[in-house]
Amino acid sequence: MERIIQDNVEKSEFLVNRRVFTDKEILARERAEIFNKCWLFIGHVTEIPEAGDYKRKKVGGRNLLFVHSQDGEIRALFNTCPHRGALVCREDSGNSRVFRCFYHAWSFKNDGELVGMPGKDGFPEGFNDEGTKNMKAVNRLENYRGFMFVNFDENAISLEEYLGNAKEYIDLVVDQSEYGMEALGGVQQYSVRANWKLLAENSVDLYHGMPTHKTYFDIKQAQDPNLKRVRLEGKGINLGNGHSVIEYVAPWGRPVAQWTPIWDEEFKNDMEKMKEKLAERFGEERANRIANYNRNIVIFPNLVINDIMAVTARTFYPSSPGYMEVQGYSLAPKGESDKHRLARNNNFLEFLGPGGFATPDDNEALELCQEAYNNNGEMQWNDISKGMVRGEGNALATDELQMRSFWRHYNSIIAASLNKEVAHQ
Amino acid sequence: MTVKTIERQDIVDFLYTEAKILDEWKLNDWAALFTDDGTYIVPPIGEPEAIPTKSLFYIHDNRSRLQERAERLLKKEAHVEYPHSTTTRNYHNILVGDLNSDVITVECNFTTHRTKREVVDTFIGKIKYEIVRDNDRLAIQRKKVVLNLDSLRPHGKISLIL
Questions:
Q1: What pTM was estimated for this model as a whole?
Q2: Cα-atom radius of gyration of chain B, to the nearest Å?
Q3: pLDDT at A422 over 80
Q4: Structure confidence at residue A419 (pLDDT)
Q5: How far is B62 from chain A (nearest CA, A)?
Q6: Is A203 on the interface with B (CB under 8 A)?
Q7: Which residues, other chains included, contact A392 with Cβ-Cβ below 8 Å and sequence gap of 6+?
Q8: Which of A355, A390, B26, B114 fits B158 for a cystine, CB–CB 3.0-4.6 Å?
């Protein structure tokens, strides 16, 4: 196949081959080289706080059971019976010491160990001495400040090494709370009829902010009589390993801690105190960065952490080149008062999620891209050049360096893969 | 002053009128059906009794937010609904509570079909209304839409008013 990208620094032109959004061969390569080898977000540690707590998760095409085992360890078990393969746990979430496959009633402790099956006399002694009849756990499960990731490649580098420069930005999100962040209930499960990489691009794309989300900013301007002009200004940064971030100022309120006129005077005082507290902990400069700057982070390949009018984490997987399944989380400081929590959630819902005033328009933009890629035969290349003329170290948040960083890394993986055989899943 | 007695049929007609207004995209008229403190909420799927400080809802509109929602969707720049999708709302199994109560509770099942770009999505579930007399008219004080789905797949969004 022809090239995936054309990266012409001299001409300040960066092009992406639209076939990457429609080609089944490409998706097979992505499964083999990206989803089987990169660190993938499975969930937040606070989703399963107590021993026995579990949640079913679909990660990288697998059915997993994210479980807080009785021994205190957090595990990701493949949710399949070692006997004949049936899905063992059928509830989406709950608390249990034991998981039992209903098909032949094999039972497992919540660390995966086989503890019972009917008709034992039909099996040899030492049948499970090697543990092959236990529910299998994903070998690599690592935690960075509450964000839990799995990797299906046993030889992968550590999560911390993988995250690299992105850690600084995750820290800025988590440091807004002295007691850590927690995931709220009601994880939003939705879809987009578009290729998954379009959402990775869209999540760090500030260039589309005004044209796509004008109706949201109209509302912001109506709420704040002093807001004459919508400023969306900041930097775009390549974090390496395909990760990137935009860090910028924006006119919306931030629960920690940028006041906006939709909130009352009591909130204003609360937020000044929050900022003082942050300044005590981290100094003025970092406190200002935490409280007043927004961050949209993409962790390659498919985790987005947006610290904007609320904090959301979203992850997304392709089930075909033109369709993705999305999980959207809300994260908030532990111990936040009900009043602030409600304001945070309402701020979230004004913009974010499938019922918000902005996310559905993103969804539409992505679907229109996907629909029009049926012109790929004649119109082959996407343009991702904005800001190259400034030099990659000087990118604005409204430039496209973030997407170029994703694509350069993606290209290094997929172009190499195209030269070798991979098994189709 | 005489106050007309409210009959079950008045409530049923009121709901059907709401559905018709929404299908005809008269969204400002829809917002006007609510009391000044009216709310419109869609709790998370599978958690119909979720608490908004503990769980993330899909929609949690107070009166001003639902007005903004209606006005936004009528703008050309509400891209997801421009051009407007075509919708058919059906309300079934309508159960009307005590008509003499200050707040009349009504439950119904609903099926809302949306079509756009030759793709039909169907939203199904239950709506719980709290309806009050507001001067000479009926008005919605609370509309709670409980989706009976496993996820928003393949719908992807609730860009419509349900």
A1: 0.96
A2: 16
A3: no
A4: 81
A5: 10
A6: no
A7: A238, A401, A404
A8: A355
Distance CA B45, CA B55 (A): 11
To probe the interface with B, which of A93, A190, A208, A371 has the most B CB atoms within 10 Å? Answer: A190
Residues A131 and A275 in one domain: no
**Any idea how long chain A is?**
425
Cβ within 8 Å of A, B 110-129? 117, 119
Residue in chain B closest to A346 (alpha carbons) equals B60
For residue B134, the domain's CATH number is 3.10.450.50
Which residues fall within 8 angstroms of residue A186, CB to CB, at 6 or more apart? A330, B43, B44, B47, B50, B55, B56, B57
Total Cβ atoms within 10 A of residue B65 = 18
Same domain membership, residue A46 and residue A27: no
Q: Which residue has the tokens 């960075």?
A: A144
Q: What is the pLDDT of residues B23-58, one digit of tens each?
A: 999 999 999 999 999 999 999 999 999 999 999 999
> Inter-chain contact B79–A212, Cβ cutoff 8 Å?
yes
Give the integer Cα–Cα distance in Å for A355 and A363: 11
Q: Which residues pair with A7 in a beta bridge?
A: A14
* Residue B153 domain-assigned (yes or no): no
Residue reference for tokens 């993986």: A413
Of A113, A60, A106, A58, the C-alpha closest to A86 is A106
Q: Which helix (H) or strand (E) holds A200?
A: helix A196-203
CA angle A121, A122, A124 (to 5 degrees): 85
